[in-house]
Amino acid sequence: MQTNERKTIVSELTTLIETGNAHVSLEETINDIPADLRAEIPPSLPYSIWQLLEHIRITQWDIVEFCLSPDHKSPQWPDEYWPEKTDSVSDEKWTETIEQIKKDRKRFFDLLKNEDTDLYAPLAHGDGQNIFREALLIADHTSYHLGEILVLRRLLKCWKNS
């Protein structure tokens, strides 16, 4: 793959994960959520904003670890990918989760930007996955759940014009 082509692909994947292109970014989606609404579960829905955010963190961490560590053991699906319901989420825990998402995102971007990383070669420890696919998986999974967070914010009347 030519250097310019690779740089373009890495840049597009990074932008897709960071900003979502066609949807609101993680940062904008979770900005200014009142602490008392983080764990609120609207009627007829199974989860809170907190549970969705923590699920994004766990899943992204698992994908990044899978890409970087051949010996990585994924959490048990679905129980270990979803946090339990809670009555409240401290500012400390909220910030910790957001910072971990950003840290794992950076680790993945470092892998993408590393010229020695073959974006298309199957990972030796996987069953056909490659780094390009895993980047799309992070973007797709995150955007899906960010959309859900926005719906919850609208239902909880804590989104723009709601």
Automatic annotation (TrEMBL):
| InterPro entries membership | DinB-like, DinB/YfiT-like
- The domain of life for this entry's organism is Bacteria
**Pfam families linked:** DinB_2
Using the record's annotation, list all stretches that form the DinB-like domain. Answer: 26-149
Q: Which residues cross the membrane?
A: none
Q: Which Gene3D superfamilies match?
A: dinb family like domain
Q: Which SUPFAM superfamilies match?
A: DinB/YfiT-like putative metalloenzymes (SSF109854)
Q: What is this protein called?
A: DinB family protein
Q: Which organism is it from?
A: Dyadobacter subterraneus
Source species taxonomy:
Bacteria, Pseudomonadati, Bacteroidota, Cytophagia, Cytophagales
